[in-house]
Design a protein that fits this description.
Blueprint (H helix, E strand, L loop, with lengths): L1 E6 L8 H15 L3 E8 L13 E12 L2 E7 L3 H11 L3 E5 L5 H8 L3 E6 L7 H5 L3 H12 L2 E4 L2 H4 L9 E3 L20 E7 L8 H11 L4 H4 L5 E7 L5 H10 L5 E5 L3 H10 L2 E4 L9 H8 L4 E4 L2 H7 L8 E2 L4 H13 L1 H15 L4 H21 L1
């Protein structure tokens, strides 16, 4: 079998979809399944050599605002080049990741493969969806035209395919549990470290976490040390919200808050391993709790707002005990305080999370995806 992964977004910046595709590609390689990745360029200076021999750069990506963040619209201006690539590679399966418009129409018009779509995004709160109310109907029409199977990383992401008539499956994001894991040794500390990971944009809710920090401070060692240890917050990520957050910290004289900026994967894992509690106060637009899964794999208890994506991910599990009504900074502070004061609870939730993360290991996810390909092929023959 030969698989062509189709990314609707450039690989120029780090991202969840990019990581998902690359990890599936590596897992398929281990299993003897040949695959290549077709990716649009965002700039002329971009070189395929940067990404490896199995990445083919074709088409152009144009960044647009999406869901208070950024996405790409991709186009293939040279259709002859695209047609030649598909003819040369002779893919058995074309696996699209997100609905790239209008590029998906261009590829599907040439495709003779089994076409699979994975939906990664949560359209909640999307300005694009508000401005283009006809888009879900168009997506459904295209899926029913020439897509043989739809995967979504979560139930909320699958809502974009609710009118699709072919086989559908929820197959979550995966994680590399060989690198996302607790530290072999953690230096004892008198402080409790909270960790936030994400783009510094309004929907990620960092300002509300800072409001919670304000409620948990000031800390007087002479009086408070007996009831709870000192508190610090590490912030991993960059974005336009950082100036507002810095002004809030200065105005309220908050202490022990460090902005670490963007981090490499190794540095990110180190940050998880230093922390005691992971906090993700995202307000909306989360299709799957990827950062929650990373924190769980590293043995951290989680405090997070119960947005739809996070709620679906943790519902009915021990991890749901750390979910807080969206936007309520007071309850966020109270939940953090409860976790701080109960080290045994943190230990139990950390152990549960580490075990639960094994269900999302990439070998498990890759097997589910390959099995779905076979199901879609069988359905294709019947249809």
């Amino acid at each position: 079998m030969k698989v062509g992964f189709i990314s609707s977004s450039s690989f120029q910046a780090p991202g969840g979809v990019k990581s998902h595709i690359l990890n599936l590609h590596h897992e398929f390689e281990k299993r003897g399944v040949s695959s290549k990745i077709i990716v649009p360029r965002r700039s002329r200076s971009e070189s395929a050599a940067k990404y490896g021999k199995d990445v083919v750069l074709v088409g152009t990506a144009f960044p647009i605002p999406f869901n208070a963040s950024q996405a790409d619209i991709s186009l293939y201006f040279n259709l002859l080049s695209l047609q030649k690539i598909l003819k040369r590679e002779r893919f058995d399966v074309l696996h699209f990741h997100n609905f790239g418009f209008p590029s998906i129409l261009e590829i599907l018009s040439f495709s003779k493969a089994t076409n699979i779509m994975t939906l990664h995004s949560n359209p909640d709160g999307s300005e694009l969806m508000r401005n283009l109310p006809w888009l879900p109907a168009m997506v459904t029409k295209v899926l029913n035209w020439k897509i043989q199977g739809v995967i979504a990383v979560s139930p909320v992401a699958m809502e974009m395919a609710k009118g699709y008539r072919g086989p559908k499956r929820i197959i979550s994001n995966g994680i590399d549990i060989t690198i996302f894991k607790p530290a072999s040794f953690k230096k004892p500390s008198d402080a409790i470290t909270l960790l936030f990971v994400g783009r510094l944009e309004e929907r990620k809710g960092l300002l509300l976490l800072l409001e919670a920090m304000k409620l948990l401070q000031p800390f007087d060692p002479a009086q408070d040390k007996k009831t709870r240890p000192q508190l610090r917050l590490l912030v991993v990520g960059e974005g336009e919200e950082q100036k507002k957050c810095a002004a809030f910290i200065k105005k309220n004289k908050l202490q022990n808050i460090r902005f670490l900026g963007k981090k490499t994967d190794e540095e990110l894992i180190s940050a998880y391993q230093q922390a005691d509690i992971f906090c993700s106060p995202a307000l909306y637009g989360e299709s799957f709790g990827m950062v929650l899964l990373e924190a769980m794999a590293c043995g951290l208890p989680i405090v997070a707002f119960a947005n739809r994506g996070y709620r679906q991910f943790l519902e009915g599990t021990k991890g749901a005990s750390g979910l807080v009504p969206v936007g309520n900074s007071r309850l966020l502070a109270e939940t953090i305080d409860r976790f701080i004061k109960k080290p045994q609870l943190r230990k139990e939730l950390g152990a549960w999370g580490k075990k639960e993360a094994q269900r999302y290991a990439w070998p498990v996810i890759a097997k589910q995806v390959l099995n779905f390909y076979e199901e879609a092929k069988r359905t294709q023959l019947v249809r």
